[in-house]
Every structure is written in C-alpha cells, then in structure tokens.
Amino acid sequence: MIIKIREMCIDDLPEVFHIGESLFSSESFPIMYRTWDEYTVTSLFNNNKDLCLVAECNGKVIGFIMGTVIEKPQSPWKYGYVVWLGVRKRYQKSGVASRLYDSLEGKFKEFGVRIVLADIEATNGKALKFFEKKKFERTSIYIWVKKSL
Ligand SMILES: CC(C)(COP(=O)(O)OP(=O)(O)OC[C@H]1O[C@@H](n2cnc3c(N)ncnc32)[C@H](O)[C@@H]1OP(=O)(O)O)[C@@H](O)C(=O)NCCC(=O)NCCS
C-alpha cells in the first residue's frame, strides 16, 4: 500500500468532509463541544491552507489533518493546534495518522511553533494512545458540563 502525504487541494474538500462525517458522528461523539460541518472544513482550508494535509492511496483520499497556528499577545511563543485528524476506518492502524501528524509538525516548525496542542475527549482511547505515542504530555483536565433542557 503506497501512501502519499500532500497538501489538501480544493477538490479534496468533499471527500475530507465525508470522511469526517463518518468519523465524527453524534453517535461516536455524543457530547462533542464542536461540530463537524461543511463550514469547518472550508473555513480551515481558507485560513490555513498550508496546514491542511491529506493522505492519499491509489488516488483516493484516506485521511486528513487540519491545523492552525495560535499567537497570544501575552506570550512570545507560537502554538500549533491540531484541530482535526481522521483516517478512514479501514485504513486505520497502519501508520497513516502518524505520517500526517509528522508532516504537520514539520510545517509547524517552519512557522516557528514552540508548543503543539490538541484536545481529545477522555473517552477517545484511540486518539489518546495516538497522541501519547507522538510524545504529547497530558496537561490540564477540562470538564465539559452539560444540562438537558
Ligand atoms: C486516532 C486516529 C486518527 C489514529 O489514526 P491511525 O492512522 O489509525 O493511527 P496510526 O496507525 O498512525 O497509529 C499510531 C499510533 O497511535 C496509537 N493507536 C492508533 N490507533 C490505535 C488503536 N485503535 N488502539 C490503540 N492504539 C492506537 C498506537 O500507539 C499507534 O502506534 P502502533 O501502531 O505502533 O501501536 C484514528 O483512530 C481516527 O481517525 N479516529 C477517529 C477520529 C479521531 O478521534 N480523531 C482524533 C481527534 S480530532
């Protein structure tokens, strides 16, 4: 299986959207505080094109990563934020996300990023393991509270 990592282009957007739809469903992430929708994909692509990458296998998009750089007025450092990362289910566990992340990290370095951040639901075991493997440390624990009306 030959997998190529490349920058996302406009023609990839529908495929990226549909992969995300299959992964970030409300059944899998019932209390996700952010939503996966067309606007998310198009706005990240418009604003951070250099930091949006796809993995391609036999001409087909099988995964994606979308990042952004955050600068805070009170901090001299730049932060890289991994906003969305997803790999089609049948291609998972074969190193695709790892390669996507490594490419994004390389780009973050070119942008002068000092710290990379990601937020993950505590129940998302796969993603927690993934970021541990990539040498992320756990930091503050945020608790999302909810109230049904
Ligand atoms: C998390 C996700 C992106 C990982 O993608 P992937 O291509 O399967 O990951 P990789 O094959 O590159 O795995 C790299 C490492 O992550 C860890 N990992 C990945 N999937 C795992 C799983 N199902 N169980 C345990 N560890 C896992 C392992 O340490 C693995 O290294 P190893 O293969 O040497 O054991 C994928 O499961 C996914 O798309 N999940 C749904 C979307 C999501 O939760 N995104 C993250 C938040 S935005």
Please give a structural write-up:
- It contains four helices and five strands; from the N terminus they run βααβββαβα.
- The protein has a single domain (3-133), classed as Aminopeptidase (3-Layer(aba) Sandwich).
- The protein is α+β, with helices and mostly antiparallel strands and 149 residues long.
- Strands 1-2-3-4-5 form a five-stranded mixed beta sheet.
- The mean pLDDT is 93.
- It binds coenzyme A.
Identify the overall geometry. globular
Strand/helix succession: EHHEEEHEH
CATH class: Alpha Beta
In total, the number of domains comes to 1
Characteristic terms for this protein:
149 residues, alpha+beta, Aminopeptidase, 5-stranded mixed sheet, 5 strands, binds coenzyme A
